[in-house]
Amino acid sequence: MRKTATISNALRISFVGLLCLAMLVPMYLLIVNSFKDQQSILSAPFELNLATATPDFLIQAWNSREFSVPFGYLITCGLVICVNIVSIGVCAPAAYVIARSPKALFRAILLFFIAGMFIPTQVILIPVIFVLRGLGLMGTFPGLVLFMASATVPFTLFVFTGFIRLLPKALDEAASMDGAGRLYTLWRIVFPLMKPIVATVFILNALGVWNDFASPQVILGPGSGLYTVTTGVYASVGQYSADYTKVFPTLLLAVVPILLIFILMQRYVMSGLAAGATKG
To answer: Tell me, what's the pLDDT at 274?
Structure first.
């Protein structure tokens, strides 16, 4: 019995190790080749010679005239913040109403929104273009914010509703006895208790928005003069596809911020999911 458990643990550890290795190899190649010249990248892509490694290529990528990395950061960070403000601001009151209403109508409404989680964003891009053109928002930052916020609504509403359902209704009844309205109860009593799940939603939505390529590429387009990190990298890589001394440093600069944010904030993601799973 003990031998079987040992073999099972060894297989699990081996599987997880191989999975980690498969995910770390591309990141290793990206990092080591960001500090090497073209000849070294082509001849020995897995080697890193600290004697010849130089940050000059990263500095050149940062100061590139074709793709302004700081401008890409600015647009993408603004997009992340605006999308989360719209998504959380809309879904918090909607989830509160749905969670506190036992009627079948509200359960049907929730299922309707949850169904949106199973529709790929790329499928609805073309209809969205006609809608945004009709509203005069095509090729604009607000248009992109509205579309990406709407894409995050199904997941945000789903987790918010599940979390609020786990909060005791006695909180609402106590607030009502003190004369508090539903809006006051939501924003001053319920919403502060949602901090773990709000942090989780914010981080997961930020990851999705930061890494999205198709939506900003189609909605903003090259004529708007606006670009996110992913679309800027695509333009840079497309123009200099043979010059790896620009490709690798530019890609590294694009992924470092969101990678650091996830590493620093991942404990909030875990705590939020754990709170949603055990509260009540």
So the answer is: 66
Task: Kindly state the percentage of the chain with pLDDT values over 90.
Answer: 16
Give burial (CB, 10 Å; 0-12/13-18/19+) of 74. middle
Query: Vertex 39, ends 34 and 42: CA angle to 5°?
Result: 75
Tokens of 101: 């209403």
**Spatial distance between the Cα atoms of 276 and 12, rounded to a whole number of angstroms:** 27
Q: Give the amino acid at 263.
A: I
Determine the average pLDDT of the residues in 144-154.
92
Residue with tokens 């070294």: 40
Residue 213: φ, ψ to 5° = -110, -45
User: 79: which residues sit within 8 A by CB, 6+ positions away?
Assistant: 141, 144, 145, 148, 209, 216, 228
Q: What angle do CA 148, 265, 263 make, to 5 degrees?
A: 100
| pLDDT at res. 280 | 42
* SS3 (DSSP) at 194: coil
CA dist., res. 31 & res. 184, Å (int): 50
Around Cβ 140, how many Cβ atoms within 10 Å? 16
Q: Has residue 80 got a pLDDT over 90?
A: yes
Task: List all residues 6 or more positions away from 62 whose beta carbon is below 8 Å from its beta carbon.
Answer: 69, 70, 253
The tens digit of pLDDT for each residue in 239-266 reads: 556 688 888 888 888 888 888 887 887 7
Is residue 262 within 8 A of residue 200, CB to CB? The reply is no
Cα three-residue angle 157-162-167, rounded to 5 degrees: 120
Q: What DSSP state is assigned to residue 103?
A: S
Q: Residue 180: left (phi > 0), alpha (psi -120 to 50), or beta? A: beta
Distance CA 277, CA 193 (A): 15
Question: Does the pTM of the predicted model rise above 0.90?
Answer: no
* Gap between the Cα atoms of 219 and 126, Å rounded: 10
